[in-house]
Structures are given as structure tokens and as C-alpha cells.
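Ticket #4471: structure export looks truncated?
Reporter: QA, pipeline team
Priority: medium

Steps to reproduce: submit the single chain below to the structure queue and open the exported record.
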Amino acid sequence: MVSKLDWNAFSVLVVDDEVGMQTILKKALSKQFGQVHTVGTIEDAEAIRQSHHLDLIILDINLPGQTGLEWQESIASDSRNYDVIFMTGYAELGTAIQALRLGAADFILKPFNLENMLQAVKRCMDRRLVERTNFVLQREVEKNNPIEMIGNAEKTIELKQMVAQFAPSNAAVLIEGESGTGKELVARGLHQLSHRNGPFVPLNCGAIAPDLLESELFGHTSGAFTGAKKGREGLFRVANGGTLFLDEIGEMPIGMQSSLLRALEQKAIRPVGSEKEIPVDVRIVAATNRNLVKEVEKGNFRKDLFYRLNVLTVSLPALRERKADLACLTEHFSHMIAKEMGLKPIHWAHEDIVAMAQYDWPGNIRELKNMIERCILLGKPPVDHWVSLQGDVPLQHQSSNQEQIIDKEPTECSCMPEMDEYPEQWTLKEVEKKHIITVVDLHDGNKSAAARQLGVARKTLERKFKEWSEEIA
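Actual output as written to the record:
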């Protein structure tokens, strides 16, 4: 016997003028398919095709009036997003050739063994599942390596434990956090540890036009709206058995929120242009950088949808709250980006890490990754790069958070000589030289740290010292 597969989200239409054949196939296929339609005429079959999304049509060729072959030939090829298995009681070579020319998935002679029919159906559905997988891979290439959350800060460890605890559940999860904190990474981790068999399908709700979002999520039938020449599966069906990640859920239009709520409550979707609902098994993970409680109070987000999505909550810490992870994050991104670019990882000096720990990182992990990529491309460490960019010096954004990956080096000292201690007869150049040397000595010869305090690039100090050594020579 054919092993039972999870075809609950698939739909099939049986077209045969023999009521007995309709009954036999409906009974056999209903055990696996979510929807099984049976009709006896082409007119009824066309009505079903126009109003429902179909994955498979099992079609008798010899029907009263219009034949099955004539019906399929009259339908534009770009409107047929389903497989067709033709049945006939007449073994004519010309008929078989015509059926294959029309793209028949299989051609079965009557009378047939039911097991042979189920095997043909299984081959069609296997191809269907491959198509869905390929669709997901086209949207975003799945990583082969396990999802890894980098860091050992206290809040990072708590986050890892929470993800491991929530993952096995099928309950909806709402991920909250500032932009760039890694919400999709956490969503992927939840999916990977859930052991769900379906794919992980991400969608940025703010990146899809409001009038297209419903079709994107639920799909549409052929002719559902202007330009819909071909039916389409929505992402709910693509993600069947897996996880649908709705990023920036706070950007979803209020009208669309009611449709999403109904889909979550009924565990079924209705494609645009269809009258029938299709059952789906999808776990929802949503993410937002907005305060949804306040959005509910303002009337921008449905309260009932918020409660439906907020069964389990994961709050991601900002990077400024987990600075103990900076060193390992920097090393991780350095090796990953350098490998992708075919370059050598940049060398991170002690003062580089200190400088990064003094910055608040308003763009969070995304900003850190972009900075590392820029440094690798330019071949310079962050201290030189930051200081060389006036107005982008991290010390202008010093963190109020006291958590540091290592102790800060001093940026000021009470033993610095006051300006009136310099002899009045000194020139400005002599005062500058004395002041720079004093600050460098204060930092035990660390010119990067001295440059940060002086507000100049390290290269400026190197040039100054070179000029002074040449004067001595």
C-alpha cells in the first residue's frame, strides 16, 4: 500500500460521468487530501476550477459533450497550475499522444487497480512537494549549518534557554526587539529546534504592498483579479507543516489583520477568488520592533490578534545590553565575512575592542556586522576608521551602560599639565608637541587611545612623530 503522506493542504478534482467511479476515488483520496471534489460533467468541472485552487485533476477523457482532452486544450497552459491524470477505457495511441502533448502527468487505462491510481497520485504529489521546496529555496537559501546564537553574556544565555524551551511547542511566538537585534535568527532557531517537517518561510509584512499582501499569504485562483491569469499558492500553503515567520507584523494593515486572525483561529485559509477554505498546519512566529501594546491602544493593531500572536513572547536585548558578547561576535563576523569575500580576516587590536565597547550601537548587531564588513573591505581597524570620520566618532555616543567586555582605558587624567604650565615663550608647535607626547605617555605609548582622547586620527599622530624624528635626525 502507498504510505500515508501529509497531503492535507492539497486539493483534488475527480471528473467522471460514472457515479460509482466518483464514489470509489473520493473514498480513497479523502483519507489523504484536505479537499476532494467530484463532478460528472465538464461544465461542473470548469465551475470548480474557476472557484477553487486545485493541485490535481483526475479526468476521464470520454465524457458526454466536451471531452476531457478538449477541455484541457481550451485552457491556456499558463492557467494550469495543477497536474492532470487522464483516464480512458480506450487504448488509442493517438489519444495517449495528445494527452502527453497537453502535459498529462499520467495516463491510466480503465479498468484499473486502485493501487496503481494511488501510485500515480503519489508521484504527482511528490513533485508538488518538490516544487514547494524549490519555491522556498528561491526566496531565500536555507543555511545548512545549525543556527547558532553567538555570545555568552547573561542575557544571551537566557535567550538561548528560552528558545530551546519554546521551540517544541506549536504555539505562536511573538519576538520583540529593536531593529537589527537578530529577530529572524531567533525565529529560524525556533523552527530548527521544533523538528517540524515543513519549511521555514519568512515574509516582511512591511515590504509587500497592502493590496498584494492577502494574495501573498493566502494565494489566489485564476482570474481572481485583473492580471491573475494563473492561480498561485500563498505562503501559508508553502509553509504547510513548517513555520511562517511574519516579520514587522506591526506594519500589517488593519484590514488584513482580521483575515490573518480568522486564518489562525480556523487553521484554514481561503485563497482570493475562492469560496472554499483549505486547512493548513502552520506555526506562526511574528516579530516587531514596535510596542504592540501601545499600537493596540492607538487602534493601529487589533487586540484579539495581539493576544493570538502573543502566546509566547521572546524579548531580544539590544547589543548595548550584552556588550560582553562583542569580542566573540566580532571574531565570528570577521571570519564569516572574510571567507565570503575571499579575504583575510582583519586583526583586531586591544584598543579596537575597547573602542567598540564604548559605543552604544544604535543599529545593534546589524550595525556591528556592517562595520566589520566595511573595515575588512577598507583594510583598516575601526579605531582609525571611526576617528577619520568626523562626526562618526564612537566616543560621541558613549554608553551609559557600565557593562564592558574589558576595563576601559582612561580617557582623562587629573595629572595632565594645565595650559598655563607651558612656558610663555613656546611656540604653538612646541606646545602641540609637548601636549601630544604627554597624552601618549599617559596611555603608555598607546597611540590609538591617545588619538581618541585628542580627537584626531592615529595616522595624524604617526605623521607627527615621524616629522619630529626627522627633525632630530
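Status: closed, not a bug. The export was complete when the record was re-opened. Leaving a note from the reviewer for reference: The first helix runs from residue 19 to 29.
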